[in-house]
Amino acid sequence: QVHLVESGGDSVQAGGSLALSCLASGYIDANNGCLAWFRQAPGKEREKVATFYTASGSTSIADSVQGRFTVSHDKAKSTLYLQMNRVTPEDTAMYYCAASNGGYCHVRLTYDYWGQGTQVTVST
Q1: pLDDT at 106
Q2: b/e sequence 3-23, b meaning 16+ C-beta within 10 Å
Q3: Which of 11, 22, 67, 91 would bridge 80 by S-S if both were Cys, CB 3.0 to 4.6 A apart?
Q4: Dihedral (CA of 108, 82, 86, 121) sign
Q5: How many distinct helices (H) and strands (E) make up the chain?
Q6: For residue 109, which phi and psi values (nearest 5 degrees)?
Q7: What tens digit of pLDDT does each residue of 54-103 get?
Q8: DSSP letter at 34?
């Protein structure tokens, strides 16, 4: 079982920055696991914006936020981070942290564990 707790969501003005954190507890496979940030805006599908691959330590960022968002992981703190820069109103959404132990990190259905979400609201 994996337990995920997000924090850091807030209201911010367009052009500003925000840092989200996800504290993960429980077993995450070091060779086949993934941690990811998803977001979901009202009336829209849930979108994966960033991924951390436990086996390689590498990360990936969705094209929609490339160049503005970065994802990082602190193994000692068991925490996944999402740094959001130059935010726009289109970044307004509930942001979720998710974990998978089944590989296929690009497939949303493989993520079995989800946090409760943290709200990000960007105003003009």
Answers
A1: 86
A2: ebebebbeebeeeeebebbbe
A3: 22
A4: positive
A5: 0, 11
A6: -65, -15
A7: 999 999 999 999 999 999 999 999 999 999 999 999 999 999 999 999 88
A8: E
What SS3 state is found at 28? coil
Q: How confident is the model at residue 107 (pLDDT cuts 50, 70, 90)?
A: confident
Cα 16 to Cα 23, 66, 69, 114, 120, distances in angstroms: 24, 16, 12, 27, 12
* Phi and psi at residue 90, to the nearest 5°: -70, -10
pLDDT tens-digit series, residues 41-68 = 999 999 999 999 999 999 999 999 999 9
Q: Would you state the structure tokens that stand for residue 66, as one six-digit string?
A: 């490339």
Sorted by sequence, the CB contacts under 8 Å of residue 66 that are 6+ apart come out as none
| Positive or negative torsion for Cα 86, 65, 10, 13 | positive
- Give the dihedral sign, CA 96/102/103/108: negative
**Euclidean distance between CA atoms 44 and 16, whole angstroms:** 23
Q: Spell out the residues 6+ positions from residue 27 whose beta carbon is closer than 8 angstroms to its own.
A: 1, 2, 101
